[in-house]
Amino acid sequence: MNAIGASTDAVSADDGTRQRDAATRRCAAVSEPMAGEMQFAMRDIDFSRVNLQYLICARDMARDYPERAAVLLGVPDALGQLLARLSTDELTAVIEVEAPLLIPRQEPWWWHRLFTALQAGRPDEIRAVLDQAGLLVASEGPRGSGACA
Questions:
Q1: Hey, how many other C-beta atoms are within 10 angstroms of the C-beta on 120?
Q2: In angstroms, rounded to a whole number, what is the distance separating the alpha carbons of residues 16 and 126?
Q3: Residue 75: partners with Cβ closer than 8 Å, 6 or more residues away
Q4: What's the DSSP call for residue 29?
Q5: Torsion-angle region of 74 (φ positive above 0: left; ψ -120 to 50: alpha; else: beta)
Q6: What's the CA gap between 116 and 107, in Å, rounded?
Q7: pLDDT in tens, 121-144
Q8: What's the rounded Cα separation, in Å, for the pair 41 and 89?
Q9: Quick one: how far is CA 134 from the chain centroid?
Q10: 31: which DSSP letter?
């Protein structure tokens, strides 16, 4: 079984445009000035499905490859073990959290290189940038150490 397993829905190529358009509409943030800066109206952002799918995939990886999970997820071993013990029903509680639970891990220069390659339609550069991501993540190792509360 792959890391995604049977718990997520497959998206066909025909659904690509519909999925992209729906995601764009759901993720469009409305800005309102507040205390001199722009704040996102959180009611207009819904990452709940992404949060759940990520946690299910991360949990499956922690179960299937516990020795790799801490490094790839960037968490201490104890947190990976705790995640591995959670059921899909238990993870489903995060559906109520619409704000993103994840943050990009790479440095801004990496994202700039990726976005530039995507925009230019350069598949060799995209592949090189994505290959580099795995090396950067592996070199970071797990964040923190020790037991989780």
A1: 10
A2: 19
A3: 69, 83, 142, 143, 144
A4: P
A5: left
A6: 14
A7: 999 999 999 998 877 665 655 444
A8: 29
A9: 14
A10: E
Both structure tokens of 137: 């993540």
The domains of the chain are located at 104-139
How far apart are the C-alpha atoms of 143 and 149, rounded to whole Å? 15
Is 80 exceeded by the pLDDT of residue 20?
Answer: no
Burial class (CB in 10 A: 0-12, 13-18, 19+), 22: exposed
Q: What gap in Å lies between CA 132 and CA 114, rounded to an integer?
A: 10
Q: What rounded mean pLDDT belongs to the chain? A: 74
The tokens describing 72, both together, are 């790839």
As a whole number of angstroms, the distance between CA 11 and CA 85 comes to: 28
Find the farthest-apart pair of alpha carbons in the chain and give their distance in angstroms, rounded.
50
Report which listed range, 11-15, 91-95, 137-141, is most confident: 91-95
Residue 16 structure tokens: 């690509």
Residue whose entry in the numeric block shows the structure tokens 């925009």? 119
pTM value surpassing 0.85: no
Q: Distance (Å, rounded) from C-alpha 56 to C-alpha 51?
A: 9
The two tokens of residue 119 are 């925009």
